[in-house]
Amino acid sequence: MAFDFDEELKKLPDRPGVYLMHGQMDEILYVGKAVNLKNRVRQYFQKSRKKRLKIYTMIPQVSRFEYIVTDTEVEALVLECNLIKEYRPKYNTMLMDDKAYPFIRVTVQEAYPRVLYAHQLTKDRSQYFGPYPDATAAKETIDLVRKLYHLRSCSRKLPEDQGKERPCLYYHIHQCKAPCQGWISQEEYRSSIDRARNFLEGRTDDVQKELKASMQTAAEELRFEEAAALRDLLHSVEKVSERQKMSSGSGKDTDVLAVAEEGEDAIVQIFFVRDGKLIGRDHFYLKTVPGETRGEIMQSFIQQFYSGTPFIPHELMLSDAVMEPEILEKWLTEKKGMRVHILVPQKGDKDKLVKLAKRNAEILLNQDKDRIKKELNKTVGAIREIGTWLSIDPPERIESYDISNISGYQSVGSMVVYEGGKPKKSDYRKFRIKSVQGPNDYASMEEVLTRRFTKALEAAGGFEKLPDLLLMDGGKGQVNIALQVLDKLGLNVPVAGMVKDDRHRTRGLYFNQEEIPIERDSEGFKLITRIQDETHRFAIEYHRLLRSKEQVHSILDDIPNIGESRRRELMKHFPGIEEIRNAGIDELATLPSMNERAARSVYDFFHKTKDSENTKTEES
Predict the structure, then answer these.
(1) Secondary structure (H, E, C), 158-220
(2) Quick one: pLDDT band at residue 506, thresholds 50, 70, 90?
(3) For the ranges 99-103, 351-355, 540-544, which has the lowest average pLDDT?
(4) Mean of the pLDDT values across residues 73-95?
(5) 123, 170, 193, 527: which could form a disulfide with 175 (CB 3.0–4.6 Å)?
(6) What is the pTM of this model?
(7) Helix 135-149 with 224-241: angle, nearest 10 deg
(8) Which of 67-76, 120-129, 292-301, 547-556 has the lowest mean pLDDT?
(9) Does residue 418 contact residue 529 with C-beta atoms inside 8 Å?
């Protein structure tokens, strides 16, 4: 059933949230946020409105849209950032710089801890708060916390360096109690740190009251400069207290599950929280039996879903209590190899997050039944069609392979995985061709498949799971190569080849030594096409990356003070040579292996070279 834009636009809620625009192959074209989803999304499809060129180009490609409701625009902003990083949509070019929201780091492992600004969360013994959508507010909060609790900002190693230097300016302006001199005990300083951590966890009511009272007093006494400064600090506190519940700061991996049901239809909505951040979500449509409770539906879903997924989080937060939580916890703990908790939150941020998932489940159930059924037809229905064509069970896991090279130069192979009719990017794999010289796609494919299935037999490198179907981007030749490899390794996996017509379009499947025609307007055909396009994209993208890295590596060889480890780090951190050329000294110096001298060497190399080129141009 076609996506009815007019009808779906009427269903948009008057709430903040994030919207996702999907293309013809169901790829995500654009992710945006809105204070009011109804007003914002409708603007894209109003003919009378003036639109930017990017929007004019994108809208004809949009086949459907979806949205996630949030409580505040701040939550929508953070979620938008996380989804863009996850999907990297084509039309979010202005946000594709991998800019991460900052954290506030408390170095609790130190004798005299500090409160610092951090660009990313790392696995050390510090405590992290965030991420914060407003970098300025985060920095102002750090400044405020230091002032309120008289915390040090220096990098001195304490208590080893106590008394070696005079106290700094912050002591003289009464913003630090000079732990560098030993003039405050570790116990008293730790008490201040604990109060600062409470503040950063969101318990800011007392501070806000204190600031408001001080601001009022300053204004009444005509100390307007001081009142304005207090007002600015109060605004910073209010920004921090707005910290969304989507970033818990706990660093835990959590799945948030909520169920909505009506009659024989039910939806389970899952929010995936990784390292304390909501990075994505999914929903599942279920047919229920009359009289089944939400708790029973939830329990059945947990059993079915987590029996087939390789990743088990540290905890599950549920909207409804299950019938046998102890048994489920024990089962999940055994699968994960460490303790897993099942919670039904009743208050606080966890309860709010569960309610948010519940609200999204209800919206999906009440407004998107037809779309969900269509999506099921595109995935589950499609793999059933493929199974029927090939006379095999519906292939839950499909793997597809491709080879990419330019005249045999730096050949690479790609492995793309679809499970349940959807791409499973965590299982994608890349291969550098090692044993083949020149443009020999058959030999290259043989090497890739041999390496992949040998690792499966060794149960190594995440290759343990075998596919239910191998899809080869070619006919009889590619299929025979795959069958030879499988036969040699003693494996039995169905293999089908995508047969092309004169215009290089798939016209059928080559299976069991015969060509099977397929309907071009069927969901099975569309799924095969999506898999084929994704396999090509992944292989070509990897090949381009290797060529770009090689180019960058050759240029970096000429820079003084840049050895092998620094070259690798520069290539890993920056997408290409232009990004390194445009980086400033401060940005270059933030890399772990770089110091200011090395950063200046890189900067001077590119800019002196550029200045030299400009001079030559002017002289000519």
Answers:
(1) CCCCCCCCCCCHHHHCCCCCCHHHCCCCHHHHHHHHHHHHHHHCCCCHHHHHHHHHHHHHHHH
(2) confident
(3) 99-103
(4) 70
(5) 170
(6) 0.40
(7) 120
(8) 547-556
(9) no
**pLDDT of 546:** 58
Q: Mapping DSSP to helix (H, G, I), strand (E, B) and coil, where does residue 302 land?
A: helix
171, 177 Cβ separation under 8 angstroms: yes
Q: 5-95 and 254-367: same fold?
A: no
Cα three-residue angle 377-383-386, rounded to 5 degrees = 120
Classify domain 557-619 at the CATH class level. Answer: mainly alpha
Beta bridge partners of 318: 257
Instruction: For the chain, give every domain's residue range.
Output: 5-95, 134-241, 254-367, 390-540, 557-619
CATH topology of domain 254-367: Nucleotidyltransferase; domain 5 (3.30.420)
Ramachandran bin of 289, using left for φ above 0, alpha for ψ from -120 to 50, beta for the remaining angles = beta
- Residues with Cβ within 8 Å of 224's Cβ and at least 6 positions away in sequence, in order, are 218
How many whole angstroms separate alpha carbon 147 and alpha carbon 532?
Answer: 59
* Residues ≥6 apart with Cβ < 8 Å to 240: 132, 137, 138, 141, 200, 202, 204
DSSP 101: P
Q: What is the pLDDT of residues 90-148, one digit of tens each?
A: 776 432 233 345 778 999 999 999 999 887 767 688 888 765 656 777 787 888 889 88
Alpha-carbon distance values, 606 to 252, 418, 503, 546 (Å): 42, 43, 46, 22
CATH tag, 5-95: 3.40.1440.10
- In the three-class reduction of DSSP (H, G, I as helix; E, B as strand; rest coil), residue 278 is classed as strand
Are 250 and 127 contacting, i.e. CB atoms less than 8 angstroms apart? no
Here the tokens at position 12 are 């948009």
Distances (CA, A) of 520 to 182, 270, 508, 526, 529: 78, 34, 9, 7, 10
Q: What is the mean pLDDT of residues 463-474?
A: 87
Q: Which two tokens stand for residue 328?
A: 């489920």
